[in-house]
């Protein structure tokens, strides 16, 4: 995965310790929540000095941006790969919606990243990367380039299905962020969503897409 170099001090993918930091930070954030997570606790977990973590990331906010960027980059790869041989625009969009609304299983080819656990962090904490006072500066520095590229890919698929639809970017971003929110509601605030063990976020967004674009 190619992540904006402004996000990290040293590329964590370049060393065994860096990969261990990524692996254990995902598990620890999932276990205790991002608010309670600290580099001191991570250092204790990986049996390394806290200062060694700062050699890779300036702070935990940058670490979270790295993890979310990694996730969106991995999802972009899946999107391109799994839609490449689909001839129908409708089928490509359907596949895209399924990819971004499903519950993910761990990709065993990436040993230091558990994508299933990482998705839980994305569901609960992704908005913490952008709902900050520094968002405009970080956006100018390219921190969210991968995420925006994913949105634009979905938007392009929407335009291929219905070139006259006037709000493809808004619809694409609503699908991506809305699916995360529906998963969160399904897990924690069940009374304000129709998604449950039988109805998935994919069901909801497929129904909405069919009605909006047809």
TrEMBL record:
DNA-binding region residue numbers: 38-57
Write down the superkingdom of origin: Bacteria
In the record, which residues are listed under signal peptide?
none
Keyword match Lyase = no
Pinpoint the HTH tetR-type domain residues: 15-75
Record key words, sorted? DNA-binding
Matching InterPro entries? Homeodomain-like_sf (IPR009057), HTH_TetR (IPR001647)
Q: Which GO terms describe its molecular function?
A: DNA binding
Q: Does the keyword rRNA-binding apply?
A: no
Name this polypeptide is given:
Putative transcriptional regulator, TetR family
The organism named in the record is Flavobacterium beibuense
């Amino acid at each position: 995965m190619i992540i904006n170099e402004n996000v990290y001090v040293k590329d964590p993918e370049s060393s065994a310790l860096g990969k261990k930091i990524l692996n254990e930070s995902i598990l620890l954030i999932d276990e205790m929540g991002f608010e309670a997570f600290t580099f001191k606790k991570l250092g204790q977990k990986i049996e390394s000095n806290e200062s060694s973590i700062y050699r890779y990331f300036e702070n935990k906010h940058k670490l979270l941006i790295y993890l979310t960027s990694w996730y969106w980059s991995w999802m972009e790869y899946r999107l391109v790969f799994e839609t490449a041989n689909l001839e129908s625009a409708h089928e490509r969009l359907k596949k895209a919606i399924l990819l971004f609304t499903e519950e993910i299983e761990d990709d065993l080819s990436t040993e230091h990243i558990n994508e299933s656990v990482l998705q839980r962090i994305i569901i609960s904490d992704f908005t913490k990367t952008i709902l900050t006072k520094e968002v405009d500066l970080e956006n100018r520095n390219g921190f969210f380039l991968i995420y925006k590229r994913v949105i634009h890919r979905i938007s392009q698929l929407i335009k291929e299905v219905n070139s006259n639809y006037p709000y493809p970017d808004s619809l694409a971003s609503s699908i991506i962020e809305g699916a995360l929110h529906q998963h969160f509601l399904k897990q924690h605030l069940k009374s304000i969503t129709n998604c449950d063990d039988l109805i998935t976020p994919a069901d909801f967004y497929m129904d909405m897409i069919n009605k909006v674009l047809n």
